[in-house]
Design goal:
- By secondary structure, the protein is of the alpha/beta class.
- The chain has a single domain, classed as 3-Layer(aba) Sandwich (Rossmann fold).
- Helices cover 46% and strands 13% of the residues.
- The protein has a five-stranded parallel β-sheet with strand order 3-2-1-4-5, sandwiched between helices. A two-stranded antiparallel ribbon has the order 6-7.
- Helix 7 packs across helix 8.
Length: 231
Amino acid sequence: MSALVLFSGGQDSTACLAWALSRFDAVQTIGFDYGQRHKVELECRPRILARFRADFPEWGKKLGQDHVLDLGVLNEVSETALTRETEITLQKNGLPNTFVPGRNLLFFTLAAALAYRQGLSHLVGGMCETDFSGYPDCRDATLKALEKAIYLGMDRKFVLETPLMRLDKAATWQLAEELGGAALVELIRLETHSCYRGERGHPHEWGYGCGTCPACDLRRKGYENYRKLAA
């Protein structure tokens, strides 16, 4: 039982990494450099992996190779607030202009290609359709269709795992506590990065970020609700 985790360095993917390490015998990670505005998340990744190995030695034994792929072409074909220094707004179709068309489809397809070579059977991503910005490539139906397409195109069965799909952000914090206790919650709070603007200058109670972008808003509300439930 082996898995490849789509690991960005953010809250959701870090919770998914812990989830995978609690279930699989061997786990590798993959990240993507696509010219994202919040590129600081890539700098967080090695620190988080080092903390997993140091703070959770049983998980550390299972944690294998980390891969980072250069996807600059995604930046070239996408003019969004996630790949350009533009103001974050809602578009006429109701989606925020942080939506990068095809991003998760491409991520999972390339992860499957790597997993094919590495002999890994499960692909784990932090997509969620409960607390999310409405991105169509985060929907469960989208990823189930993609799983079938990957199977048909590669003639090998991969299971696309999305453990956060039905969880809101408060439940994601709770899941982290259940998996790794207060130590994992603190690691996620202080080491991960989710802010679309890439702000890491000032720590809030819920972690680092600008505090106003959609990602920070979701993270803040989720943490506040998690603390209320824990009180």
